[in-house]
Amino acid sequence: MEKRARVLIDCEDAKGLVYKISKVFYDRDLNIDNNREFVDKEQNRFFMRTVVTGLFDVNELLEELKSVVPDDAHIRVIEPKTKKIVLLATKESHALGDILIRYMDGDLGADIECVIANHDTLRDLVERFDIPFHYIPAEDLSREVHEAKVMEQIDQYTFDYIVLAKYMRILTPKFVKAYPQQIINIHHSFLPAFIGANPYKQAFERGVKIIGATAHFVTDDLDEGPIIAQDVIPVNHRFSWKDMQRAGRDGEKIVLSRALSLVLQDRVFVNGNKTVIF
Amino acid sequence: MEKRARVLIDCEDAKGLVYKISKVFYDRDLNIDNNREFVDKEQNRFFMRTVVTGLFDVNELLEELKSVVPDDAHIRVIEPKTKKIVLLATKESHALGDILIRYMDGDLGADIECVIANHDTLRDLVERFDIPFHYIPAEDLSREVHEAKVMEQIDQYTFDYIVLAKYMRILTPKFVKAYPQQIINIHHSFLPAFIGANPYKQAFERGVKIIGATAHFVTDDLDEGPIIAQDVIPVNHRFSWKDMQRAGRDGEKIVLSRALSLVLQDRVFVNGNKTVIF
Amino acid sequence: MEKRARVLIDCEDAKGLVYKISKVFYDRDLNIDNNREFVDKEQNRFFMRTVVTGLFDVNELLEELKSVVPDDAHIRVIEPKTKKIVLLATKESHALGDILIRYMDGDLGADIECVIANHDTLRDLVERFDIPFHYIPAEDLSREVHEAKVMEQIDQYTFDYIVLAKYMRILTPKFVKAYPQQIINIHHSFLPAFIGANPYKQAFERGVKIIGATAHFVTDDLDEGPIIAQDVIPVNHRFSWKDMQRAGRDGEKIVLSRALSLVLQDRVFVNGNKTVIF
Amino acid sequence: MEKRARVLIDCEDAKGLVYKISKVFYDRDLNIDNNREFVDKEQNRFFMRTVVTGLFDVNELLEELKSVVPDDAHIRVIEPKTKKIVLLATKESHALGDILIRYMDGDLGADIECVIANHDTLRDLVERFDIPFHYIPAEDLSREVHEAKVMEQIDQYTFDYIVLAKYMRILTPKFVKAYPQQIINIHHSFLPAFIGANPYKQAFERGVKIIGATAHFVTDDLDEGPIIAQDVIPVNHRFSWKDMQRAGRDGEKIVLSRALSLVLQDRVFVNGNKTVIF
């Protein structure tokens, strides 16, 4: 039966990669529905994302692709399957709510396994959508102990990505290491401006004329992970920092949802501390 | 000696085109520096732009490419060469001036052969840059007669593109036909809003909150040609239409220069009444 | 007891209006918290929005203001009170959902009285928020008969504004007349481009590089009412019209919510077929 | 004879300021053409810009205004007069060229007294516009000695503002102090991101998806002065840092020219380390 798959390859650049890879598809009589490549010349690294349709066995295709690309290649052949996500949140509903509405609409492209929060504020909203809500308070707990509880809860689920929908706690290296390239965060500034706490207050103090939002993969370095999407909103002297925060929420939720959509469609490669997005 | 060329192909879509074309490059031991493709599924049309380096004869490469793609294919192998443009203008200096500054800076990527205008206003500016300025007044002349004089002047030059840098006259089908896909215009609205005369006045009357600019290839249908680039600028109730015009000028010049840059880099394919831009 | 009110005045322009109006506030010992004026010179019309705090009787203040401004003045002294809205929708959830999440969050600045829809699709979503949902099918009914049923339902409620959250039916002049300057619509293009049905398909056919959304008051002329807010989203040749529609949804919901917020804060004056927004 | 003036007032906020100031205009039978105020509640500071027309003596008006506002008030009554600017540049022509074209067009709203540069590269361009060009090389000179020469040259001219059109040298506190709130700079990033040298390289290394430009008044703290205008440009993984630089130039020149225009129209108040812009 005819199948469809997304083929993602990244490897050291070499002569003839497009030819060799497209030959594999051609020889197997696969249709290329969509194809994009990029070569990072500075890192000498090749990236390719192809959507193929036809008759194929995933493992055979994988093996054959392996035989034509450099040894260091990272190859994925991804068949259509609804991905699963776990959401972490705190008290704010805008980013979470945007994802919930898309989910209900069938527009999210993922199943939401659960929402975990360090406050109980969002329970009512989440449970209205029949999604499990786990309240794990952090009060009186060390960061490590609280996080261990969160991880224990997370690990009850199978999932592809963890989405921090305004989760206002810093993650430890242990947590980050446990889910490599799987954690997506929304930071409420156009990074690298206003790293750290309360970016809107920082923006207000600095008197900027634009504020922004940044969705990125989480790495050990706070607010330093590979950026997936960014957007900005104009502000002026009439904005208090609360006004900036209010205006910024729209940017935050749209940028997070856009980044999540790109990731769920397997359009995002991590390239060192950057991303390649097709 | 090693050469570099841009290879542009557009043709009916068919199975294996990426493979077949990349095989030609591979067999000739050419390096692919940059490669982008697109398939317009609705029109069943394939577009590809590849930058290759290596040892090759242009005609041989062209012949070999022809042998692997559908008969209707339009193939260009373009070697590095500074393109030439002719500018048409009227009285306003912003779009023209932006191109002149880029030209002087070596940033334009083209030689300016001359400026032709239906007013003498811009002579001083143009001649400061040692560029021939031809004043061809339209007063008391029929459109046809005036245009014949303009064409006569234009045809003194060899050039790749005619750029209408706020040339405020409508071209006849005869003119348009003489330079197919070679005429680039900047229209001072985000088309298709405000087609025709004085778009800023129209925008003011309508009370819009954004104004824009559109660079497009000129076809017989006024303001209906394939769009290359567009941008917008926010406005509000405090803007008179003159204010909109003033604010809009920045958009116009940037959009025209950006479109021109894309065209000069051979990044723009015309696809029916649309463009494909790599 | 100290009170707070928004004072909105629009009238024929005349010398000394700012002085005379601010004198009323000064003589009554009211604080001006915020003050903005605008004079439309073309229409010779004055607009002013002032937030005052202090001790005052609304009717007395109103009378005194009347005595210092031209006879045609439209004066409102609005005390803080949560406004009420009625939502009309069809099948799409994004614009409606965005308003629901803001409502639940306490961020909307209005109470939602009910949602009325010509399809039953959104019932589940709406009822999860404990908001009355009225399904009034249009099938087999003339526009007039269906609308009469909708109006009958609407008139069960008291409300300040009717918000068309992607209500995909054209309203008759009778309906529009019944709720003057009270109906807010979101149109899925940057008006006046792509008036009428399926703007995304129109945008796709035209090959534009930006798409947009426009929130406006509804008047008798379809898509011609005073514009409150607009925004745009960049697109390119890779977008099908379905992709444009998907991308455009974010713009639509943000623009509608932003327009609604401005209206609910009494920041929007209608000025002929335009708006003045403070 | 009827005159026109811009009245700019900033002072500690107090009750009745709008009333008292507009009373002065009313009593003198002056027309208010345009009026905007703002109160910075955090700093308890009042800002007002009014355009008045009528019969008045500037000094008398000034005295009368002084008598109704707090003692700390900074009042300016500015009659129409073409302002004068001095430009500092290095090698790049885009920002300088944009200003030159506007100047030639009569669109700048200022006379250019001269261009001073630490390289001779731009001489040809500048002299084509009949503007004095002073080349003051910095090679083999200490910062202090070079700057003393620049100041000596500057002080040959009378001027209102010094515009740094991509002047790639850091100014000493002595220089900054000599021209308080008179020096406008364009920084090639959306500050406070990428302070310091080569922001595009920094942006490239960080993998951002937007780059920007910031026009600001120069203060002692490098890149920390009050921001006048900012804008951003989208980029992606295909951009080298040279591409970012090229794309960023358009933003730089537009932002600088926009900021300069606001300043020349006396629309910009400095408020601590921020600006209030009417």
Automatic annotation (TrEMBL), chains A, B, C, D:
Organism of origin: Sulfurovum riftiae
Pathway annotation: Purine metabolism; IMP biosynthesis via de novo pathway; formate from 10-formyl-5,6,7,8-tetrahydrofolate: step 1/1
Domain of life: Bacteria
Name assigned to this protein: Formyltetrahydrofolate deformylase
Catalytic residue positions: D223
Short name of one Pfam family: Formyl_trans_N
Family as reported in the entry's similarity comment: Belongs to the PurU family.
Catalytic reaction list: (6R)-10-formyltetrahydrofolate + H2O = (6S)-5,6,7,8-tetrahydrofolate + formate + H(+)
Function: Catalyzes the hydrolysis of 10-formyltetrahydrofolate (formyl-FH4) to formate and tetrahydrofolate (FH4).
